[in-house]
Amino acid sequence: MYQITLGLRSLLYRKRQYFSLFLVCMVGVAISLTSIYLTTGMIRSLNTKAKIYYGGDLVFMRSFDKDLSIFDYEQYEEEFKKIFARDAIISSRFDYDARHTSVYYEGTEGFLQTIKGVDFQKEQELFSRFNFVEGGISDFARGENGVLISEPMAKTLGVRVGDDVTFMLLGDTSSMDMMTTAYSELKKYINTAQIVVKGIFKDSSIFGMYTAYMDVTYLKQLDGRADNFANRICINFPDRVPSHSEIARYQKALGKKYTMFPVVTNKNQFIKLQPLFTEPTCVLIPLSANLQDVETMEKAMNAIITFVIIVLTLIIIAGIGSTYRVLIMKRINEIGIYMAIGMKKEAITATLLFESLFLLLLGCLAGFLFSQVLCAILSGIDFSFIPTFDIFLEEGNLNPVIDVIKSVAVISSVVIATLFAVLYSTLKSIKIMPVEALAVTE
Length: 442
Known about the structure:
Elements: H1 2-13, H2 15-54, E1 58-62, E2 70-71, H3 73-83, E3 89-97, E4 101-105, E5 108-111, E6 114-118, H4 124-127, E7 132-135, E8 146-150, H5 151-157, E9 164-170, H6 182-187, E10 189-201, E11 211-215, H7 216-223, E12 229-230, E13 232-236, H8 244-255, H9 268-271, E14 282-286, H10 292-330, H11 332-340, H12 345-379, H13 404-429, H14 434-439
Parallel strand pairs: 6-11, 8-10
Antiparallel strand pairs: 1-13, 1-14, 2-12, 3-6, 3-13, 4-5, 4-9, 7-10, 8-11, 9-10
Helix pairs in contact: 1-12, 2-10, 2-12, 2-13, 10-13, 12-13
């Protein structure tokens, strides 16, 4: 089609005239794509931390007592190997409520919310994604009295890897009189242990600051639990996220073995009803059901980014569309020549559209490359100084992730919407007669 060649030549001939439109397109697309890549990376970092905290993509729990006890958990694990996909990593955990636990080091006291008993050998893939400041899990032996703590907790206590900290596990103080004697206060402690700090992880988020990780066997011994005890079984898919249909299949298969509660969208749907069950009832909790509060934040982030992209797209459409209308009006004489030599209005319209299409494609390509530069600059900045922002960071930095689908959607919307704006301006300009067009001088 000669219109393509003519449109490309016209764009190259008027490159100075169209440079400002090229910049508008490039900058708008670059900011839009950068926002998408940063947000995608932030959400992925958040989900990675959540997977480590909760143990994977799915959590199996059983309403046996207030501790959600699962005895003979190894039998459950063997059954799960037959039900879940081959790539699933199945590991039992013991989540210990540490709100009545104190940690001491050289007279300094620290407090925890949760101690998670973990089989580090089985969950090595998950913990390989942990951002350690010092140490790690490489030399963590089964039954060892080691602990992983967050960097803020380590700074509070003033400890380094290799230091011994004192854990004082307390009984439930909720029913005790506030006026108890000092002796009674001492009696609340049910166990005291010296535990070695094996690793310090970089986390100041809701998933880490007040959380510690121990070997599950040692934690059970510390709390006086039976060897065959667990209170959740975690299922992790290392390289993918299970679909809703896949989770439904697992739910159905588990229902043939156990009394199953329906798949929940919020874990509290099960927790609140758990005391009312007349028989042991099991539940499969997806990661998203553990992240209801966080999902609200994700939706807010996506809403903000969507608003920014819409505004930038409108600026591009308005900027290029209105400017193109002025430029076309100045080219009425040229359009008259096209008409005089026999070009049909459809061919003239196609020429001008191809001209604008090339401009938009070049602007979008430049915008994509510019977004990579912006992402590289932003990912090199340490944002860990922002309180609680570490939940979105990896080793203190943003980690942008290219989202191909969203990128194509943004670029397509910019190109198509702007072409429609140009088409409208073009159709209005070529309605005049060839003689009238030739009579117009720029």
